[in-house]
Amino acid sequence: LSNKLDRAIKTLKGQGSISEINVAATIKEIRRALVDADVNYKVAKEVTDKIKDAAMGRDVLTAVSPGQLMVKIVYDELTELMGGEKKDIVIKGDPAVILLSGLQGSGKTTFAGKLASYVKRQGRNTLLVACDVYRPAAIDQLKVLGEQIGVEVYSEVENKNPVEISRNAIDYARKNGKKVVIIDTAGRLAVDEQMMREIEAVKSAINPSETLFVVDSMTGQDAVNTAKTFNDRLNFDGVVLTKLDGDSRGGAALSIRAVVEKPIKFISTGEKMDALDLFYPDRMAQRILGMGDVISLVERAQQQFDEDEAKRIEKKIRKNQFDFNDFLGQLEQIKKMGNIKDLMGMIPGMSKAMKDVEIDDDAFKPVEAIIRSMTKQERANPDLLNASRKRRLAKGSGTELQQVNDLMKQFDQMRQMMRKMNKLSQTKGGLAQMQ
Ligand code: GDP
Ligand code: MG
């Protein structure tokens, strides 16, 4: 008997699932939180649709509340949407060439220095190339960084042709035993046709093993549009998200990844040369979750769901439609709260009646097993339960026929009591109206 009960409880545990009402309310809140975290609206909608699919019908272990489970689902989906695993850059060729692109001020030059330092620490002989031919100060900026990290910087002060400079730099690298060449380019303040043509020309002339698009995460929605334009022209290999040390909310990571379908490979979190990190989708998911405060939103939505459920039950009682499904639903609720008296408190009018009754939680285990053994129709329509069906229930749930009969009696009494309370409140209401 005990074995059978255990099995019944196990299936029971597996059967609780996140319901539709629950999800709908939560999804709306999550979408708002994502938009607050700078995720593009269209992307937020796609994400939440996926979350909804993932959440519907997922099993709820009694140890985890549906709210916590939702958070986990959201976290998993965000991680997955940002690429799941971290992706490294491809360093291939002799020399391997890495080309940087992006708008002015996005952090290209700073990142060039960081990347050079990173590659150098891997034991590779590295060359930085200054290809920003419009601002002489840009060459100096790169030289200062190069000196700081001990990496040579190639530049041609008089030459204004970035294609030539990069070709010459690669020749120079070959002759001087440099294994990795990092090319820093010029950007404009906004997307600009000449800049695009120039970087396209550099890319096709030198055929880099890695073309990276550098973008300022603080620019929010604009970051997505810029990424799309650059990707349409350059078909880059990866994204570098900079300035994540500020109050950027990180939502750009999700939007960019979703819109251009290219992995984010690095994040930059400061002006210092060591403030470079590989991009970990799970950590970014945490950041977005934390920033949008999705966790508390989910919890609030969960609470709302509980209230809605209580109202729904109350309505069913009023219409004399309380059935075994509702009864089981109520049992689920107690288990979540861990206390049977609390459940009774949730059934309107029951809290007073149950005040002095001592009930231990195990008392309900056979009850649950019996209800689980009922068919859908039987649960919705308890009057169907004749003698032979009751015998079947006892067998299926590993209980005695007497226990099934007791449950039926109790359930009947409960319904009668509810009916009486209904009549009472209706008469009262009626009298009150007549006065
Ligand atoms: P470029 O025009 O794309 O080459 O951009 P720069 O590398 O010159 O950077 C523009 C400004 O942003 C500079 O003042 C940098 O110090 C700053 N910057 C770059 N990356 C970061 C970062 O990750 N965090 C912060 N806080 N500032 C950064
Ligand atoms: Mg620069």
UniProtKB/TrEMBL annotation:
Enzyme Commission number(s) of this protein: 3.6.5.4
Enzyme's top EC category: hydrolase
SUPFAM superfamilies in alphabetical order: P-loop containing nucleoside triphosphate hydrolases, Signal peptide-binding domain
Domain SRP54-type proteins GTP-binding as annotated: residue spans: 263-276
SMART domains, alphabetized: AAA (SM00382), SRP54 (SM00962), SRP54_N (SM00963)
Keywords recorded for this protein, A-Z: Cytoplasm, GTP-binding, Hydrolase, Nucleotide-binding, Ribonucleoprotein, RNA-binding, Signal recognition particle
InterPro entries xrefs: AAA+_ATPase (IPR003593), P-loop_NTPase (IPR027417), Signal_recog_part_SRP54_M_sf (IPR036891), Signal_recog_particl_SRP54_hlx (IPR013822), Signal_recog_particle_SRP54_M (IPR004125), SRP (IPR004780), SRP54 (IPR022941), SRP54_GTPase_dom (IPR000897)
Main location, first listed in the record: cytoplasm
Keyword Ribonucleoprotein: yes
Binding-site positions, GTP: 102-109, 184-188, 242-245
Domain of life: Bacteria
Pfam families recorded: SRP54, SRP54_N, SRP_SPB
Subcellular location: Cytoplasm
Catalysed reaction, written as an equation: GTP + H2O = GDP + phosphate + H(+)
Domain notes: Composed of three domains: the N-terminal N domain, which is responsible for interactions with the ribosome, the central G domain, which binds GTP, and the C-terminal M domain, which binds the RNA and the signal sequence of the RNC.
Role this protein plays: Involved in targeting and insertion of nascent membrane proteins into the cytoplasmic membrane. Binds to the hydrophobic signal sequence of the ribosome-nascent chain (RNC) as it emerges from the ribosomes. The SRP-RNC complex is then targeted to the cytoplasmic membrane where it interacts with the SRP receptor FtsY.
Subunit structure: Part of the signal recognition particle protein translocation system, which is composed of SRP and FtsY.
Family, similarity comment: Belongs to the GTP-binding SRP family. SRP54 subfamily.
This protein's name: Signal recognition particle protein
Source organism of the structure: Hymenobacter ruricola
